[in-house]
Task: inverse folding
């Protein structure tokens, strides 16, 4: 017999607690949407740890999008949905002009290939745009969050936009994973 109060736990891994945090000062419905956006971003950031600028700029095996292009796209799409669908603006909110110098797509309709930026620059862009999105959502009450915006081609609510942006980033995280694997495989082949 041992004197340790945790002797019966020896060899058992510590339990993980899988819960979404409740953002303070928000309606619980809006807070839940923000928590899902936050968890999605946390997972994206975890997948990007340890990457270099060369990794970020490397094109996919078939000259597809680079990791940097996907990161720019995620931030730009967030601002496009916030500006157009939620705030009814015709351009980016002015607070993000300095981090979004390009439109969502280039003249050929392809994602912008933002080259020569460090991973930190890409992450700062994502932080600035996400902070603005969360600030705008947090300022709403649930009635405004669920108020339908009638646009030319469809009707949409900020609640649906938040859901869509969560899904959009999660889907691109899968693409980022494939690109990172291709970059790692190319690095191994070069050795």
Result:
């Amino acid at each position: 017999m041992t004197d340790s109060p945790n002797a019966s736990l020896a060899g058992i891994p510590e339990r993980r607690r899988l819960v979404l945090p409740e953002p303070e000062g928000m309606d619980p419905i809006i807070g839940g949407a923000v928590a899902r956006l936050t968890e999605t971003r946390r997972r994206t950031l975890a997948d990007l740890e340890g990457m270099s600028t060369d990794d970020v700029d490397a094109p996919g095996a078939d000259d597809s999008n680079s990791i940097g292009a996907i990161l720019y796209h995620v931030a730009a799409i967030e601002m496009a949905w916030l500006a157009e669908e939620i705030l009814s603006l015709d351009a980016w909110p002015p607070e993000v002009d300095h981090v979004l110098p390009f439109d969502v797509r280039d003249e050929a309709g392809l994602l912008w290939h933002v080259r020569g930026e460090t991973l930190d620059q890409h992450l700062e862009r994502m932080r600035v745009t996400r902070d603005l999105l969360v600030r705008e959502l947090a300022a709403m009450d649930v009635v405004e969050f669920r108020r339908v915006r009638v646009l030319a081609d469809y009707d949409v609510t900020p609640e649906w936009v938040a859901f869509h942006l969560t899904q959009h980033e999660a889907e691109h995280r899968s693409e980022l994973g494939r690109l990172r694997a291709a970059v790692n495989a190319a690095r191994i082949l070069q050795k």
Remarks:
- Residues 158-190 form the longest helix (33 residues).
- DSSP finds six helices and two strands in the chain.
- The two ends are 54 Å apart (CA to CA).
